[in-house]
Amino acid sequence: MSRILFPKDFRYIIGASLVMIGCMLLGFIGVPIERLGIVALEEDYLIGIVTAPFVHGSWSHLSGNLIGLWICGYIASRQPKFKRVSVAIVIMTGALVWLFAGDGNHIGSSGVVMGYYGYLSGVAVFQRHLTGIISLIALAILTYLANINLFGTLFNFSENISTESHLFGFLSGLLLAYAIRSKRWKNLAKNEN
Q1: End-to-end alpha-carbon separation of the chain, Å?
Q2: Separation CA 76–CA 144 (nearest Å)
Q3: CA 99 vs CA 5, 34, 49, 52, 119: distances in Å
Q4: How confident is the model over 15-41, as pLDDT tens digits?
Q5: Please, which residues bridge with residue 38 across strands?
Q6: Distance between CA atoms of 20 and 87, rounded to whole angstroms?
Q7: For residues 168 and 93, is the Cβ–Cβ distance under 8 A?
Q8: pTM to 2 decimal places
Q9: H-assigned helices in the chain
Q10: Which CATH number fits domain 2-192: 1.10.8, 3.40.630, 3.30.300, 1.20.1540?
Q11: CB of 32 within 8 A of CB of 55?
Protein backbone atom coordinates (compact mmCIF):
# COMPACT_ATOMS: atom_id res chain seq x y z
CA MET A 1 0.00 0.00 0.00
CA SER A 2 2.77 2.46 0.85
CA ARG A 3 4.42 1.95 -2.59
CA ILE A 4 1.17 2.95 -4.24
CA LEU A 5 0.91 6.21 -2.28
CA PHE A 6 4.64 6.87 -1.95
CA PRO A 7 6.61 5.74 -5.03
CA LYS A 8 10.10 4.48 -4.19
CA ASP A 9 11.80 7.03 -6.46
CA PHE A 10 9.99 9.98 -4.87
CA ARG A 11 12.64 9.81 -2.13
CA TYR A 12 15.02 11.49 -4.59
CA ILE A 13 12.66 14.47 -4.81
CA ILE A 14 12.54 14.63 -1.01
CA GLY A 15 16.35 14.44 -0.85
CA ALA A 16 16.76 17.17 -3.46
CA SER A 17 14.28 19.33 -1.53
CA LEU A 18 16.36 18.94 1.63
CA VAL A 19 19.51 19.96 -0.27
CA MET A 20 17.66 23.06 -1.55
CA ILE A 21 16.63 23.98 1.99
CA GLY A 22 20.24 23.39 3.12
CA CYS A 23 21.50 25.73 0.38
CA MET A 24 19.05 28.42 1.53
CA LEU A 25 20.32 28.05 5.11
CA LEU A 26 23.93 28.31 3.91
CA GLY A 27 23.03 31.47 2.00
CA PHE A 28 21.32 32.81 5.10
CA ILE A 29 24.55 32.56 7.09
CA GLY A 30 26.57 34.24 4.34
CA VAL A 31 27.90 31.43 2.16
CA PRO A 32 27.95 32.76 -1.45
CA ILE A 33 25.70 30.08 -2.92
CA GLU A 34 24.80 32.31 -5.87
CA ARG A 35 28.17 31.23 -7.31
CA LEU A 36 26.46 27.89 -7.96
CA GLY A 37 24.04 29.40 -10.49
CA ILE A 38 24.42 29.58 -14.27
CA VAL A 39 25.78 32.64 -16.03
CA ALA A 40 25.67 32.01 -19.76
CA LEU A 41 29.01 31.29 -21.41
CA GLU A 42 31.00 32.05 -18.23
CA GLU A 43 33.43 29.19 -17.58
CA ASP A 44 33.45 29.96 -13.84
CA TYR A 45 29.75 29.08 -13.77
CA LEU A 46 29.91 25.74 -15.60
CA ILE A 47 29.31 23.99 -12.27
CA GLY A 48 25.90 25.66 -12.29
CA ILE A 49 24.75 23.25 -14.99
CA VAL A 50 24.31 20.72 -12.17
CA THR A 51 24.04 22.93 -9.08
CA ALA A 52 21.70 25.76 -10.18
CA PRO A 53 18.49 23.78 -9.47
CA PHE A 54 19.44 23.62 -5.79
CA VAL A 55 20.00 27.37 -5.38
CA HIS A 56 17.15 29.84 -4.86
CA GLY A 57 17.09 33.59 -4.36
CA SER A 58 14.60 33.71 -1.49
CA TRP A 59 12.40 31.55 0.68
CA SER A 60 9.36 32.48 -1.45
CA HIS A 61 11.28 31.48 -4.61
CA LEU A 62 12.16 28.15 -2.98
CA SER A 63 8.66 27.45 -1.65
CA GLY A 64 7.07 28.23 -5.02
CA ASN A 65 9.44 25.85 -6.78
CA LEU A 66 9.07 23.14 -4.13
CA ILE A 67 5.31 22.97 -4.60
CA GLY A 68 5.73 22.46 -8.35
CA LEU A 69 8.61 20.05 -7.81
CA TRP A 70 6.64 17.90 -5.37
CA ILE A 71 3.61 17.71 -7.67
CA CYS A 72 5.49 17.12 -10.94
CA GLY A 73 8.18 15.04 -9.23
CA TYR A 74 5.64 12.81 -7.51
CA ILE A 75 3.88 12.02 -10.78
CA ALA A 76 7.13 11.70 -12.76
CA SER A 77 8.61 9.38 -10.10
CA ARG A 78 5.89 6.88 -10.96
CA GLN A 79 7.23 6.62 -14.53
CA PRO A 80 9.88 4.11 -15.67
CA LYS A 81 13.48 5.37 -15.91
CA PHE A 82 12.76 8.25 -13.50
CA LYS A 83 16.34 8.55 -12.21
CA ARG A 84 17.88 8.63 -15.68
CA VAL A 85 15.29 11.06 -16.93
CA SER A 86 15.84 13.33 -13.92
CA VAL A 87 19.62 13.45 -14.38
CA ALA A 88 19.21 14.05 -18.12
CA ILE A 89 16.71 16.88 -17.54
CA VAL A 90 19.10 18.60 -15.11
CA ILE A 91 22.11 18.30 -17.43
CA MET A 92 20.30 19.12 -20.69
CA THR A 93 18.46 22.10 -19.21
CA GLY A 94 21.57 23.43 -17.50
CA ALA A 95 23.74 23.02 -20.59
CA LEU A 96 21.20 24.75 -22.84
CA VAL A 97 20.81 27.61 -20.36
CA TRP A 98 24.60 27.97 -20.11
CA LEU A 99 24.92 28.02 -23.90
CA PHE A 100 21.95 30.17 -24.92
CA ALA A 101 20.47 32.13 -21.99
CA GLY A 102 20.48 35.87 -21.66
CA ASP A 103 22.19 37.95 -19.00
CA GLY A 104 21.89 37.22 -15.31
CA ASN A 105 22.47 34.41 -12.88
CA HIS A 106 20.00 31.62 -13.57
CA ILE A 107 19.06 29.77 -10.38
CA GLY A 108 16.19 27.64 -9.12
CA SER A 109 14.54 24.31 -9.77
CA SER A 110 11.83 25.60 -12.08
CA GLY A 111 13.75 24.28 -15.12
CA VAL A 112 13.55 20.79 -13.62
CA VAL A 113 9.85 21.26 -12.79
CA MET A 114 9.20 22.28 -16.38
CA GLY A 115 11.36 19.34 -17.52
CA TYR A 116 9.05 16.96 -15.67
CA TYR A 117 6.06 18.77 -17.17
CA GLY A 118 7.54 18.32 -20.66
CA TYR A 119 8.40 14.70 -19.96
CA LEU A 120 4.93 13.85 -18.68
CA SER A 121 3.35 15.66 -21.65
CA GLY A 122 5.64 13.77 -24.01
CA VAL A 123 4.90 10.41 -22.41
CA ALA A 124 1.17 11.05 -22.86
CA VAL A 125 1.56 12.15 -26.49
CA PHE A 126 4.37 9.93 -27.81
CA GLN A 127 3.88 6.71 -25.88
CA ARG A 128 0.09 6.83 -25.87
CA HIS A 129 -0.49 4.48 -23.01
CA LEU A 130 -3.12 4.84 -20.34
CA THR A 131 -0.73 5.55 -17.45
CA GLY A 132 0.91 8.42 -19.32
CA ILE A 133 -2.44 9.99 -20.16
CA ILE A 134 -3.74 9.55 -16.60
CA SER A 135 -0.50 11.04 -15.25
CA LEU A 136 -0.91 14.14 -17.41
CA ILE A 137 -4.55 14.52 -16.34
CA ALA A 138 -3.53 14.11 -12.67
CA LEU A 139 -0.83 16.75 -13.19
CA ALA A 140 -3.37 19.17 -14.66
CA ILE A 141 -5.80 18.62 -11.77
CA LEU A 142 -3.18 18.86 -9.01
CA THR A 143 -1.53 21.98 -10.42
CA TYR A 144 -4.94 23.57 -10.85
CA LEU A 145 -5.80 22.82 -7.22
CA ALA A 146 -2.42 24.23 -6.12
CA ASN A 147 -3.10 27.35 -8.23
CA ILE A 148 -0.10 26.67 -10.50
CA ASN A 149 -0.33 27.40 -14.20
CA LEU A 150 2.47 25.35 -15.76
CA PHE A 151 1.59 26.43 -19.29
CA GLY A 152 1.56 30.09 -18.22
CA THR A 153 4.87 29.61 -16.41
CA LEU A 154 6.38 28.19 -19.57
CA PHE A 155 5.88 31.51 -21.35
CA ASN A 156 6.47 33.90 -18.43
CA PHE A 157 8.79 36.62 -19.71
CA SER A 158 8.90 38.66 -16.49
CA GLU A 159 12.16 40.40 -15.65
CA ASN A 160 13.26 38.21 -12.73
CA ILE A 161 12.18 34.92 -14.31
CA SER A 162 14.55 32.59 -16.16
CA THR A 163 12.30 31.94 -19.11
CA GLU A 164 15.19 30.10 -20.72
CA SER A 165 15.24 27.58 -17.87
CA HIS A 166 11.50 27.04 -18.26
CA LEU A 167 11.61 26.61 -22.04
CA PHE A 168 14.78 24.51 -22.13
CA GLY A 169 13.51 22.36 -19.24
CA PHE A 170 10.22 21.68 -21.00
CA LEU A 171 12.01 20.98 -24.29
CA SER A 172 14.47 18.62 -22.55
CA GLY A 173 11.64 16.63 -20.97
CA LEU A 174 9.74 16.45 -24.24
CA LEU A 175 12.82 15.28 -26.16
CA LEU A 176 13.57 12.63 -23.52
CA ALA A 177 10.02 11.28 -23.75
CA TYR A 178 10.38 11.10 -27.53
CA ALA A 179 13.80 9.40 -27.31
CA ILE A 180 12.50 6.80 -24.89
CA ARG A 181 9.51 6.20 -27.15
CA SER A 182 11.81 5.78 -30.15
CA LYS A 183 13.97 3.23 -28.29
CA ARG A 184 10.90 1.34 -27.09
CA TRP A 185 9.55 1.35 -30.66
CA LYS A 186 12.82 -0.08 -32.05
CA ASN A 187 12.93 -2.76 -29.34
CA LEU A 188 9.34 -3.78 -30.13
CA ALA A 189 10.18 -4.03 -33.85
CA LYS A 190 13.21 -6.24 -33.08
CA ASN A 191 11.12 -8.55 -30.90
CA GLU A 192 8.45 -8.93 -33.56
CA ASN A 193 10.98 -10.10 -36.20
Answers
A1: 39
A2: 17
A3: 39, 19, 10, 14, 22
A4: 999 999 999 999 999 999 999 999 999
A5: 106
A6: 16
A7: yes
A8: 0.90
A9: 2-5, 10-28, 48-51, 59-76, 82-100, 110-122, 130-145, 150-154, 163-192
A10: 1.20.1540
A11: no
